[in-house]
Write a structure and sequence with these properties.
Radius of gyration: 20 Å
Number of helices: 11
Oligomer: single chain
Helix content: 40-55%
CATH class of one domain: Alpha Beta
Structural class: alpha+beta
Largest sheet: 6 strands, antiparallel
Shape: globular
Distance between the termini: 36 Å
Strand content: 25-35%
CATH topology of one domain: Alpha-Beta Plaits
CATH superfamily of one domain: YebC, transcriptional regulation domain
């Protein structure tokens, strides 16, 4: 799936709060989303439609915790100029969950593998791209936090539906599974509540004037309260353990303001680097995700047999 970026993305504080709520669970009702920004359901619907029209919200995608498959998560960074064709070749490498092309010309690739540090897989990725990577960030141990994922056949079927259409109509989910609305709702809510899955918005990155929406990657042991003192409104999207990198959704007044605050972060002793993480295109490897889910469904069938 290709994601197109647009950059005229002015937004106010209520827009930002709605985007934060979407990152928590994009399948929430308008009423539930609106509570975060003190908006009514109709006002929330209108704002979200406006954000879509302006290219700030470009779609939605299903992010899954790779540990449900017994896999580790690794981010691989290419900082030199990468073409669209090179990104497409990267997406075809076994184990690639998604590829993000950056506005500065670089690329980030998320790999899922059975090894905590998949050197062979990284080599295959570099061969496909035709370039040497410039760094990697590795996830925490599989035994960190939730050790046992007990997903039922219904859970796996729900995931298989949501890969292609994360906001699939609830009635259609009920129809496909053949179960009661209450059963489907309980399983879906549990998957989201237990952070097995995240249903997230795909966002445009940056505006050239007015309020800015952007992401920033901070490498270091700096805490969120300290980051908020400098950056203001931020929301933690993702983080890695080795090295410790936080990926944050942020709102700024204008580009000079964002540049100044980023420079201030880079001067702190507990920050290795703070860089704007702006995506131009993103390729999500749905074929790979479907294959993993199909494997789990087959395992469940064999166990029952």
């Amino acid at each position: 799936m290709k994601i197109r970026s647009l950059f005229n993305t002015r937004l106010d504080s209520k827009d930002f709060l709605l985007l934060v709520a979407l990152h928590e669970n994009a399948r929430q009702s308008y009423r539930s989303l609106g509570k975060r920004a003190s908006l009514s359901a109709p006002a929330t619907r209108d704002r979200l439609e406006h954000l879509k029209t302006r290219g700030i919200i470009q779609g939605f995608w299903l992010s899954m915790d790779p540990r449900i498959f017994g896999l580790y998560d690794t981010l691989i960074f290419f900082r030199s100029e990468i073409t669209r064709k090179q990104a497409e070749r990267a997406a075809e490498v076994t184990g690639t969950a998604w590829v993000a092309l950056k506005l500065d010309g670089g690329m980030t690739v998320q790999l899922w593998s059975k090894e905590a540090k998949p050197l062979v897989l990284i080599g295959e990725l570099e061969k496909a791209v035709g370039k040497t990577s410039d760094g990697a960030a590795f996830s925490e141990s599989l035994n960190y936090q939730r050790q046992n994922f007990k997903l039922s056949p219904l859970d796996w079927n729900l995931l298989d539906c949501l890969v292609e259409d994360p906001l699939m109509n609830f009635g259609r989910l009920v129809s496909i599974t053949g179960l009661s609305p209450k059963t489907v709702r309980n399983h879906l809510e549990a998957l989201i509540r237990d952070e097995v899955i995240y249903i997230l918005p795909i966002l445009g990155s940056l505006a050239d004037s007015g309020e800015l929406l952007f992401q920033i990657a901070i490498n270091g042991k700096i805490t969120l309260p300290v980051i908020r003192e400098i950056m203001g409104d931020v929301f933690l999207i993702n983080e890695t353990n080795d090295p410790p990198i936080k990926y944050l959704l942020c709102k700024g007044t204008n580009l000079p303001d964002v540049t100044t605050k980023t420079a201030k972060l880079n001067r702190l002793s507990d920050v290795e680097s703070a860089t704007l993480a702006l995506n131009k295109d993103q390729i999500i490897n749905n074929k790979f995700l479907h294959s993993l889910i199909s494997g789990k469904i087959s395992e469940k069938r064999n166990v029952r047999a």
